[in-house]
Every structure is written in structure tokens, then in C-alpha cells.
Amino acid sequence: MDGLIVHDVRNANGSIHFRVVGSLLRSHLPNLHPGIHQTVVDTFASELMSGGKTFNEWTSVRIFPMVKNLIRTTNSLVFFGKDLTNDAEYLKALLQYPEDVVSTSEVLRFTPTFLAPVVASIMMRRGRAVKHLVKSLLPVVEQRMKRNSQDSEQMDIFQWMIGSSPKKSPWLATKIVQVTLGLWFGSIHQPAMAIVYALYDLCQHPQYIEALREEMTRCEENKTGDPFEEMVLLDSFLKESARFSPSDSRELPKLRLAKLPFENPSIDTVSVSLRRKAIAPYTFTDGLSVKFGDVACVPMRAMMRDESKYPNARTFDGYRFVTDSQRDSVAKLTDVETKFPIWGYGRRAW
Ligand code: HEM
């Protein structure tokens, strides 16, 4: 990857990104919230104004590109700070790079090994996007590394990567860029899918709009504690949306908001998740065995539509996970649990 080396062995890539995302990012979210909020507001406004067809007071937008732009701008702020947000080529590369990697990896699965380097190079457009990202990001890291790495004014993933780099043998700037771009790759697609489905659900069930607005306004005004902790309906709605359309679904429909109302398009797509390729023959405790090279998956959609766990499982119920009296016993959207594996399983889940 443009001179950057990604090791197949997991630990060889280091583990500071686990600390950065799992701990530092989480603890700084309240401070980042105002910037994220403003970015979301601005991006929505500019996307809605940018050339979609208008009918009376409605504007048609292509929802997936719009949401990807939204995720890109907010994630870019959280990952790299404000410095680069005016560079159009860099912003384009931020989306192009993960898309190139995904399409290339799919094509490589069916490519003979001897042709792989040539095909990969063509599919990755000779690394144009990643080269541009490295060219833009490397000087930023190098400059920041020269300053105090614990620079408290800077609050973004880049800075925490620099600050968390081992003191005895600090990471080179190239490695910081490499690992951060790896994280970046993981940070685009899933959130974008989750938001698209939540927007579809909101459009299909507009009765939640007012209730959600009311809850958000009330919780934002109540300045005691973290407002998000109090937004039980929002949490439940998003969790139900994730249950109804686990975002690992196979395809995203080409629908436009203007065509509303419509059936929830995700209903018949297939979803498996958490793929694991066996690197040695293995027998599970129930006797099921897999051979070398087999891929084991979690049947996410089937689990999420299991009537014994979710009564009326094929009906969207935004209040499904709101139970006021025993709120503490109901897992939140962001909790990692085996029954609801949208974040993955066990200690490897984020
Ligand atoms: C709605 C949002 C998201 C969903 C539903 C989601 C879901 C998942 C799932 C199912 C996995 C596979 C876990 C496994 O195989 O056990 C995964 C892995 C991963 N995700 Fe996410 N993710 C989301 C957002 C993010 C974000 C924002 C980031 C980065 C800031 C991120 C970074 C990663 C990374 C680095 C991995 C690989 C972890 C590993 O190899 O152990 N994800 N995610």
C-alpha cells in the first residue's frame, strides 16, 4: 500500500488503535460532540442544497452517497481534525480508498494468483487514492510529532495515535498513517449503512419523528449528565433499526427519498456476519466441524428475526427496547452481546 506495510499476523500491526478507539475516543466524545453536531448540520444542509431535483417543497437526494458524505466529513473531523477539510482531492480520496479496497478484494477472490498484482494495481487505480491520502496526511503527522505529542489542544484520532505510540520505540509517522488508514477503512461503510436504514425506517414510520425530536430536545436541555444516556427512545429506535436491517446485508437498494412511501427494501436481503476462515480443522462443542479453509459465519438476520426472542419479529417496533421500569436490564445499542452481535463477538468487538 504505497510503501506502507500491513501484516497478516494480527499483533504485528500493534494494538494502540484498540486503546485509541475503545478508550480515548469514547472518553472524548462529549468534547467532540459540538463539532460533530455542527458538521452533521452543515453537511445535511449542503447535501440537500446540492442539485437534487425539487418537487414543491421536496428535494430528491440519492441517499447512500449523501450519507457517505456525511460520514466522511464527520469521521474526517474526528480522525484528522479540521486542517484538511477544504482539500477537495483529499476528501474524494477518503471515500475512494475504502471503495477501491472492497471492490479490489472481491475481484481478487476470483483472480488467479499470478495475475493478482496486475489486477490489484488496475483495480486500485494504481493506488491513486491512497497515494493522495499518504501525501496529505504524512506531513501533518510529522509536524505534530515534532510538537509535544500530548498536545492537549488537538483532539483527534491522529493525535491520540501519536500520544499512545510506545515511548521506548515510537512508531514512525508512516506507521501511524498506515494504522489510522486501516481504522478509517473500517469506519465508513458500516455506519453509513446503519444510518441509511435508520433514515428509511424513519421515513416509513414517520410517527416516531415527533417523539424522537421531543426526547432529544428535552434531554439536550437537561444539562445534568450525558444527554445520550437519557435518550432511551433514540437508542431503542436505532437498535430496532439495526435488528430489522443488520447492516451487513448484501445489497443496498437504489431508492430515492422522493419515492416515499415504500416498502422497507432490506426485508428480503440476506445477512451473514462475523466471518471466520478456519486456518486449521476445528470441531465446535456441538460436534459441528469445519475443515481447513472453510468459512464460518453468524447468521445475523436469522438471529434478529427469531420469533422466540423478538415477538412480531417482522414488525418494526421503535419502542421494542424501551422498558422504563427495568431500563438497566435492557442492553443498549452500543453494548456488545452475543444475542445481538452487530458489533461482532467477544474481546475483538469494538
Ligand atoms: C454502525 C457502525 C458499525 C458497525 C455496525 C460495525 C460493525 C462491525 C463488525 C460486525 C465487525 C466485525 C467484528 C468481528 O468480526 O468480530 C467490525 C469490525 C471492526 N470495526 Fe466496526 N462497526 C461500526 C463502526 C465502526 C467504526 C466507526 C470504526 C472505527 C472508528 C470501526 C472499526 C472497526 C475495526 C477496526 C474492526 C476490525 C476489528 C478487529 O479486527 O478485531 N467500526 N465492525
TrEMBL record:
Keywords: Heme, Iron, Membrane, Metal-binding, Monooxygenase, Oxidoreductase, Transmembrane, Transmembrane helix. Belongs to the cytochrome P450 family. One of its GO terms (molecular function) is iron ion binding. This is ADP-ribosylation factor protein 3. One of its GO terms (cellular component) is membrane. InterPro entries: Cyt_P450, Cyt_P450_sf. Its cofactor is heme. The keyword Iron applies. It is found in: Membrane.
